[in-house]
Design goal:
Serine Threonine Protein Phosphatase 5, Tetratricopeptide repeat; Neuraminidase; 3 domains; 4-stranded antiparallel sheet; 10 helices; 24% strand; kelch repeat; repeat; IPP_BACK
Length: 360
């Protein structure tokens, strides 16, 4: 006679499996099946995977699929490994009302430990069928959650004021004077041997402030503020002025452009972009804005760089048809200003947005 209880079932099934006592293993599996509920099914699922008990694993997976809406609300769901989560999210058997519930479950898992899990964002969101998401609900989620996410995107939920400098000759990093205002999502530009730190945000507050670093005195000084607070903005230098483009302006993605003249210590609004954008790369700009040929794919969050007189645009986000949720791109386009044409070249190996790009 074998007495099975919640206190001994795990040890018993492991021992029975080692001794190849199949009947005892089966009894333990049946006992666990009878104990399963939305609060413990993840734990049983992980245990059955650990001991390679395929019958129990299949049973718990089916249970999770059927009771998904209850299961993903529990603490155990947040303890899933990345691979276990993806396996569940990919299932065609999930009992859901709409795809938005799967998206929320994925984001809930990521946000549980954003500092460690943000590197898995692309993998975890890959199973989401974004074309099936209600677009308005997704936009509300992005708008409502952006500032909550932004503060932790760059350094484990903390906006920083510290600044580091890399010496290309000695090949090492050193710290220099800190910014007066801790922030993330800021823009940075170099003009006249000075480093400008522009905009950004901290704790849901978006800044219009601009600071200037003098590498000779090794100090930051405050210069004129922008006309609009911005974070996630694009910044570049052209003809002796600093340009700040787009970014989040309050709860909206802005399309205004500001120009800073260091001689006059003044920001002025100089125009609008054709498309509102955030987190994009910037290269050279003309003093006069003219309409040129459109990209083959609408993008936001892309990388931009100029090489040998050609403009390379890679990755970013693009909306699906009928204004559905945006998807991450791996495509690359090249603009020739002489012929005013765009040409598609080979895709990147990995789709990406909000990345960095450099010319060597």
């Amino acid at each position: 006679i074998v007495n099975i209880s919640v206190n001994n079932v795990q040890e018993l099934i492991v021992a029975a499996d080692m001794l190849q006592l199949t009947d005892v293993v089966n009894l333990c599996c049946e006992f666990l099946k009878g104990q399963i509920d939305p609060l413990n099914c993840i734990g049983i699922f992980q245990f059955s995977e650990q001991i390679a008990c395929h019958d129990l694993l299949e049973f718990t997976e089916d249970y999770i699929h059927v009771h998904f809406l209850e299961v993903h609300s529990g603490e155990e769901f947040l303890a899933l490994t990345k691979d276990q989560l993806i396996k569940i999210l990919r299932s065609e058997e999930l009992s859901i009302e709409d795809e938005y519930q799967v998206f929320l479950a994925a984001m809930q898992w990521i946000l549980k430990d954003l500092g460690k899990r943000r590197k898995y964002v692309v993998e975890v969101l890959d199973p989401i069928r974004f074309p099936l998401l209600p677009s308005q609900r997704l936009l509300k989620y992005i708008e409502g959650g952006y500032t909550r996410l932004q503060g932790g995107r760059w350094s484990d939920s903390r906006a920083l004021s510290c600044v580091e400098r890399f010496d290309t000759f000695s090949q090492y990093w050193t710290t220099v004077s800190s910014l007066h205002q801790a922030r993330c999502g800021l823009g940075v530009a170099v003009l006249g041997g000075m480093v400008y730190a522009i905009g950004g945000e901290k704790d849901s507050m978006i800044f219009d402030c601009t600071e200037c670093y003098d590498p000779v005195t090794k100090q930051w000084t405050t210069v004129a503020s922008m006309n609009h607070p911005r974070c996630g903005l694009g910044v570049c230098v052209c003809y002796g002025a600093v340009y700040a483009l787009g970014g989040w302006v309050g709860a909206e993605i802005g399309n205004t452009i500001e120009r800073f003249d260091p001689d006059d210590n003044k920001w002025e609004i100089v125009g609008n972009m054709a498309v509102s954008r955030y987190y994009f790369g910037c290269c050279e700009m003309q003093e006069k804005w003219v309409e040129v040929a459109s990209m083959k794919v609408p993008r936001a969050g892309m990388c931009v760089v100029a090489v040998n007189g050609l403009l390379y645009v890679s990755g970013g986000r693009s909306s699906s048809h009928d204004f559905l949720a945006p998807g991450t791109l791996d495509s690359v386009e090249v603009y020739n200003p002489h012929t005013d044409t765009w040409t598609e070249i080979g895709n990147m190996i990995t789709s990406r947005c909000e990345g960095g790009i450099a010319v060597l």
